[in-house]
Amino acid sequence: MSNSLGIAAVIAVALGMSNEPEPGLSLTTLFAANNGFAGNTFDLDVLNPQGVEITGWDVNLDSPNPTDTIDIYWREGTSVGHENNPTGWMLIGSDAGVVAQGSDVSTPVDVGPLELLPGVYGIYVDWASYGAGVFWYTNGGPTVFANADLSLTTNTGENNGAFTGGSFFPRQWNGTIHYQILVLDSDGDGIPDDEDACPNSDLSPTIVIDGCDSDVENLLFADGCTMADMIAECVDGAVFHGQFVSCVALLAVQWRNAGLINDTEIGAIDRCAAIPGDLDGDGAVGVADLVILLGAWGPCRVHPDTCPADLDQDRSVGITDLLTLLVNWGP
Ligand SMILES: [Ca+2]
Ligand SMILES: [Ca+2]
Ligand SMILES: [Ca+2]
Ligand SMILES: [Ca+2]
């Protein structure tokens, strides 16, 4: 087995084919402080069915320090009742270079990214370098601040020392959440659906046609389609099996010409695509094929290359091979 699929996906990403950020979006609560201490908890309900990626935050911070440290935690489910218990909380990140902008002004905090699927999450914003100054918030609540993607419900103000100080309820976090909508990649090939010409790719490691494994690596192209996807399109476009065989043969030659496969691999793909019993390769099973099979009747001298009529590969051409040919009789 090889990792060609992965390599091809990486190439696609390197070519800029994947995951261009959506325009920046944000949700702001309020910047109208009348109280403060060292942090806040609140709940975030992700409404957008695709989920969101949080890319950054703003807080309301007054501090004489040249830089401050803000830690932000998240947990699955509500923050309510978990304000003073670290169990279940996970640190999203810590920004030790926060430059306080003063009261009722946005102070950027570089913590993220955090991908969140639809659901409710608890958030804890902690001014870890608590000291001189104030981490501002507003009395009252719980208050809901929402847009089409996110619904934020305020919860508590927090004393210093994450999960160890007192909680004050109700308090409204002052801040902004910067985010973008998560880009769906339904087939997981690294190319988002909106750029993926085959959003539900067959990502089998090798090209398998109707149960026949060619052992040829199933490469992923930059448009998001794999070799197996292109062969599947040949099925859709063919009325007779012969048309399918021709379509696959053409693809195989194109891939060979592009340096993706060699002549041996062309043969392996063509063999898998062929109708069992089409010994002359004209895309149908008929009298000419029957003549070839009867002419090869008996034990194979060298198996299997000189014995194409040995359809069940038991090293001889016999009744089972004849029956297979007859079952597939026709175009
Ligand atoms: Ca995809
Ligand atoms: Ca795809
Ligand atoms: Ca034939
Ligand atoms: Ca046989």
Commentary on this structure:
The protein has 331 residues and is of the alpha+beta class. It folds into two domains: 20-181, Sandwich (Jelly Rolls), CATH 2.60.120.820; 194-327, no CATH class. It has helices at residues 4-14, 227-237, 241-257, 263-273, 287-295, 319-327; strands spanning 25-28, 35-37, 39-46, 52-59, 61-62, 68-76, 90-98, 107-109, 114-116, 119-127, 134-139, 144-146, 150-158, 167-168, 171-173, 175-181, 206-209, 212-217, 298-299, 316-317. The strands form five sheets. Strands 3, 6, 7, 10, 12, 13 and 14 form a seven-stranded antiparallel beta sheet that branches. Strands 1, 4, 8, 9 and 16 form a five-stranded antiparallel beta sheet that branches. Strands 2, 5, 11 and 15 form a four-stranded antiparallel beta sheet that branches. A hairpin with an 8-residue loop joins strand 13 (150-158) and strand 14 (167-168). Helix 2 (227-237) packs antiparallel against helix 3 (241-257), helix 3 (241-257) packs antiparallel against helix 4 and helix 5 (287-295) packs antiparallel against helix 6. It is rod-shaped. One calcium ion binds next to helix 5. One calcium ion (CA) binds at residues 310, 312, 314, 316-318, 320-321.
